[in-house]
Specification:
Chain lengths: ~350, ~350
């Protein structure tokens, strides 16, 4: 069948150009007589792939020289433990802002290795906003300050990052990395599972300020120590070579598209088209406070679960797929990552309007 | 260029049929309108893929019902920590047989969480044999007994497994899993990084007896607790979906080839052809004691590093690649995994004979 409009929350849409390029060189990479998957991770060919991935990423995100880039495994869920195991070193305290499902997992995991201070939470309204925090609530002696920059499930997004002074700011950017410009120098660690904006699942990106490496707690498994991977150039053991190759192609695609300047315009424009349609509708409404709306994940509801279910089912018949909302919110969710084209959002908006017209 | 004969130690050769099949459905999986990499890991399509992978694996390896199959990330190196973190529970002691590079990493990692008793080692002869162990040396109160079933670097292989009685036997089978028949019921845990016999790198297979799940030490990161992944059906967090799909294709390929009966014949036959040629040669010799020779990794040397280097270089010109030995052994190493066809070994043997003739 034709390629569908894919609104999956992750794993999610990849750029069609990237898929076609990877398909062409899938069985034989360049003139090597073998697939990338059959190459040694110690070969010059693979070293070139991982180096090119890092170069493109640094270029696109303007990563300062005093930050290391690591390609790891285990997803953001592994980072929930790696962050405290590596960063708890003086006070063994950390501040967390609780914005939903991901921090709900990250907070108790950190709590096993030190003291977690939840300084703000949006749980009172089913996480449909980003809590405003006052600097007076911050622990000045915290070893780090933790946020989830964009919540995939609830569709919220930090539009401004807390100014944590000398306390390293750690951000889970799994669902919005590379969606807009970001000043990396404001962060101690940025991490992201690849499967939303960076490539297929199976590789986890960590961008870490150098001085935060090398202080893991004694009990830290070798593979959970950032130093292991920084020293080994992400090749301490066999990395997920094909996944890193795919991420490289995606990074280069973003660069070729005009980098984060262009990506940001593309994403804000898509998000505006969709939110405007929802705000104009009398049947559908976005669930998140306007000032905290994600430009990647857009949950919306009719208030009637039966109508929601029919919308999702009729949309799928028209090739608009992945629109079922997470059970925590219900209704619908359109994930409109970098690789989702404007025409997909246009098609969704047209369908929303048609559906409303036919059902009022 | 033409497909080369690939003797890489890992990542390594994959069955050409598998690569071609995966290439065909790379951009669009079946009639879904999207790539596998763009599908939710919670979709019925992916559930079918991971279920089919497990079914084929259980069928091929005849895995008893009281064993769980887990698809994890982080490679064997993560298992070096996961095994002690999950299995140290009573005496916090374990017996290890030291057979080279991999146990050299596994032993100190376990030693961080309990007491490791190295009951035998082949370090005295640069690990070119499997030490014979006497049951009287085993610790009867050990929480587990650990071996590396096949050493990729030194080319040794356990032909008989130690009878550890009630003490669970743990085997790192990264480089020989599915190469020959094995009685899974003799083991507590079998684990393997995929990138030799199972698929591309980025997925780690763990086969674990059910009663060993659920006893992790308190300090164990959630992602390093086998229970997390057993309870979640390997879907606690987003798994490496494409890598699991590739492993499924490889498992099905092994099954279609006639399972481990056929694979074992295929591998012993290839190994015999190569070892016979080396034993007959007056220029080349295999480095491992005949009774402990791996059927997957065959190191050999001339004794002259200059001649070795010329051999490797001339072989590569003839499309025989990946033959450079590991620096710990020097010389050459041919890794002849399941996906390496008999004709590749025949071509290598012909080249060995030609080279010897032309250089005597």
């Amino acid at each position: 069948m034709a390629r569908v409009y894919n609104f999956n929350p992750g794993p999610a849409a990849l750029p069609e150009e990237v898929l076609i390029k990877a398909q062409k060189e899938f069985v034989e990479y360049r003139n090597s007589g073998m697939s990338i998957m059959e190459m040694s991770h110690r070969s010059p060919e693979f070293q070139d792939i991982i180096d090119s991935a890092e170069t493109a990423l640094r270029d696109v995100m303007k990563i300062p020289a005093n930050y290391r880039v690591l390609f790891l495994q285990g997803g953001a869920s592994s980072q929930f433990a790696m962050v405290p195991l590596n960063l708890f070193r003086k006070s063994k305290k950390a501040d967390y802002i609780h914005t939903g499902a991901w921090t709900k997992k990250a907070i108790p995991e950190a709590g096993r290795y030190g003291t977690v201070n939840v300084i703000a939470s949006s749980e009172d309204k089913n996480f449909n906003y980003i809590p405003k925090v006052d600097k007076s609530a911050f622990s000045s002696d915290a070893d780090y300050f933790y946020i989830c920059a964009n919540n995939t499930i609830y569709g919220t997004r930090f539009t401004e990052f807390p100014d944590t002074g000398d306390v390293p700011l750690v951000a889970d950017m799994s669902s919005n990395i590379m969606s807009e410009k970001v000043d990396v120098s404001k962060f101690g660690i940025i991490f992201a599972g690849a499967q939303k904006n960076l490539g297929p699942s199976g590789v986890t990106l960590v961008i870490i300020r150098e001085d935060l490496i090398g202080h893991a707690m004694d009990i830290t498994p070798t593979m959970f120590d950032y130093k292991t991977h920084a020293d080994g150039g992400s090749l301490f053991n066999t990395p997920p070579t094909f996944n890193i190759y795919m991420a490289k192609l995606v990074f280069e695609w973003v660069r070729d598209m005009g980098g984060l300047d262009a990506m940001e315009k593309h994403n804000f424009s898509k998000a505006k088209v969709l939110y405007d349609a929802l705000d104009e509708s009398s049947m559908f409404s976005a669930t998140v406070a306007p000032e905290d709306r994600s430009i990647m994940n857009v949950p919306f509801v009719t208030g009637n679960p039966d109508i929601d279910a029919r919308f999702i089912s009729e949309a799928a018949e028209k090739g608009l797929v992945g629109l079922k909302g997470h059970r925590s919110v219900g209704g619908m969710r359109a994930s409109i990552y970098n690789a989702v084209p404007a025409k997909a959002v246009d098609a969704l908006v047209a369908f929303i309007r048609d559906f409303e017209k036919n059902n009022s």
